[in-house]
Write a structure and sequence with these properties.
This protein is 43% helix and 15% strand. It is of the alpha/beta class and 336 residues long. The protein is globular, with a radius of gyration of 19 Å.
Length: 336
């Protein structure tokens, strides 16, 4: 019987948490419906008990939670622009799924749920850095959905006594992040394109900034959140980030050095729902979890570029898109 359940186990963040748990010798169950998760992300994770299933089905949630002590809830339909295009799908895969999972966790006697929140909950408030006491003003349907999930999570602590921790992730990046969709995180897209010698596009003037957080920091925070004493952390919301920020223009310049790309970026109009600046105050996670970033932005970018280079993803996509062009097909809309 598995001690841990990781939802969204075939996604970038879920698979990274699973890998760390396995390294520690833990027993792990993973679940994914492959809506955005990738089967190839499960390679190397053969030690887990894997369920293919959709958490919009309450019975699937019950099966997933059976016998489990701690849940890391990473499953979601991420992306601000995707939520602008499909708010209903985002709500279903972020909010409905979370309520179903919490209800199953309660019924099946799960002790603790660690929830993947999002910095998008803060929305476009000018105050920097963002701290957890600030009123949230989510702008995109995605931000609203992730915040609604947080409220459900905290309600299940107050009303039913389920132990919960909300970690508000700030722009996570690193190995295994899907680089091939229009909805992919910007750093994954830029790494793929720049390694393939393709021109990346910056939406807006490039002076928007993010607290880009390397995946190892997020995995570290999750493990701390699972282990921390209940009286200290249950029902709490904590930023999970580095506490710094970089503009996209700065980030492009660092990536140019790391990838060897020689061109300039293209600029296109800003995307609707986009937030200008984001930077976390991480003092609450430091105080309550003993959290500290383990890998800084630049080192994280270096490792990420090396991973994409070694994985051959950039070149594979390049070959595929060249074949499509030769066959006369139009570029697949999934490729950013
Ligand atoms: C939001 C959340 C983040 C996470 C993520 C999940 C904020 C501040 N952050 O990330 O914590 O939940 O959603 O999807 O709300 N961009 C380009 N070119 C591209 C792709 C993106 O310029 O090819 C821009 C984009 O317009 C934005 C920035 O890069 O200004 C970051 O975009 P993103 O999609 O990587 O992440 P973001 O900030 O929406």
């Amino acid at each position: 019987m598995a001690r841990f359940l990781v939802t969204g186990a075939a996604g970038f963040i879920g698979r990274s948490i699973v890998a760390d748990l396995l390294r520690r010798g833990e027993t792990v169950r993973g679940i994914d419906n492959f809506l955005t998760g990738k089967r190839e992300n499960l390679v190397g994770l053969e030690g887990i008990e894997f369920l293919e299933g959709d958490l919009t089905d309450p019975f699937v949630c019950m099966r997933a939670c059976a016998g489990v002590e701690i849940v890391f809830h990473e499953a979601a339909l991420a992306s601000v622009p995707r939520s602008v295009a499909d708010p209903v799908g985002t709500n279903r895969n972020c909010v409905d799924v979370t309520v179903n999972l919490l209800e199953a966790a309660r019924e099946m006697g799960v002790r603790r749920v660690v929830y993947a929140g999002s910095s998008s909950a803060y929305g476009d408030t000018p105050t920097l850095p963002k701290h957890e006491e600030m009123p949230e003003h989510p702008l995109s349907p995605y931000g609203v959905a992730k915040l609604a999930g947080e409220h459900y999570v905290r309600s299940f602590t107050r009303v039913y006594g389920l132990e919960t921790v909300v970690l508000r992730y700030f722009n996570v990046f690193g190995p295994y992040q899907d680089p091939a969709s229009y909805y992919s995180g910007v750093l994954a897209v830029f790494c793929r394109k720049m390694l393939a010698g393709e021109q990346p596009t910056i939406f807006g003037d490039g002076e928007q900034s993010r607290d880009f957080t390397y995946i190892d920091n997020v995995v570290h925070a999750n493990l701390l959140a699972a282990e921390a004493p209940v009286e200290r952390v249950s029902g709490q919301v904590m930023n999970t980030a580095t506490g710094f920020r970089n503009t996209l223009n700065e980030t492009f310049r660092i990536l140019r050095e790391l990838t060897g790309y020689r061109g300039d970026p293209a600029y296109a109009p800003a995307r609707p729902g986009d937030i200008r600046d984001s930077q976390a105050d991480i003092s609450r996670a430091v105080e309550l979890l003993g959290y500290a970033p383990v890998v800084d932005f630049r080192e994280g970018l270096r490792r990420t570029v090396e991973w994409y280079r070694a994985s051959g993803i950039a070149t594979k996509n390049l070959v595929r898109s060249r074949k499509r062009v030769r066959r006369g097909a139009s570029a697949a809309p999934a490729l950013a």
